[in-house]
Amino acid sequence: MNGARATGKSLYIAVLIKQLGHFMATMNGTIHFADARTQETYKNIYEKPLFEARGLMPATPPAATHDSYVVEPLIFSLGILNGVRRYLVIRDVAGEDMEKPPADTMPLAFLRHADGVFFMFDPLTVPDIRAKVQDLIPAQLRLGGDPNTVLSNLLNIIGTATPPLAVILSKFDAMQELRNVDDVQWQSVMSNSGAAFLRDPSLESSKYDQDDGELLHEEVRSLLHKLNARHLVLSLENPGAGQRIPYRFFAVSALGESPSGDAVHSRGIAPFRCLDPAKWVLSMTGAI
Ligand SMILES: Nc1nc2c(ncn2[C@@H]2O[C@H](COP(=O)(O)OP(=O)(O)OP(=O)(O)O)[C@@H](O)[C@H]2O)c(=O)[nH]1
Ligand SMILES: [Mg+2]
After folding, report:
1. Of the ligands numbered here, which is closest to the C-alpha atom of 6?
2. Residue 242 above 80 pLDDT?
């Protein structure tokens, strides 16, 4: 995982594991904790606050806090897929570490070896969007820093490695609220019923749908331009230094609706397109 503080990384992990359970079931498979530590961490840090207490979770502690659960990966067994025993290994990071990397970046060196890095972009950090939706959704308690700084820190840490990068527009439920704002342009963009970013086919097929993925990629790319994130897009398209890394744009909502204070919406959790980035990586590694 990667991204600034409070972009939605940890909540996404909590929800992704549940969604992967549904996804594996469509293939007559299952997802299991590969070890007791993963089980304990997932249950206590991710599952309980969200699915039992129906609240949010605190900021992930920096890796330098040595008892931090982020220094050890979460490991899940996916059973045998395409004839090979598969494990899914997830590393959460603290946005704090990515906004201001520690002098010793060794604890983040795993990023160079990842089969995929998920970079989260929070649309609510864009002042214009926050202002437009302020009367429609409750104000968010935590807000992260500049995504450009985080991306450039990430690219520095990655160095000459080229892990595929999923650039994910998170909290997409907040973007969908823009169809109700007093702004003709945003209203028409977000009410386009043909748009891939308004439907979620991710549980319909056991394969990653390349056509749907490419369409979504182009749509999110233009949304990022509209969100004044042109610099971020350009630094991937035309990297100043280093290599060009393979990247793809995604849109997800872990919660499906804005939380109110520190509680999830009373209607519950309705994840949107959370499986896409995972299916993209699983398809590249040959697991699906
Ligand atoms: N509307 C909406 N808000 C979300 C969603 N996911 C996360 N949030 C909000 O974003 C806040 C931060 O989410 P976290 O998952 O804890 O963020 P993080 O990226 O892990 O943050 P750090 O641990 O500080 O790096 C939450 O407390 C929610 O208020 C979502 O899908 N929709
Ligand atoms: Mg976190």
Report:
1. 1
2. no
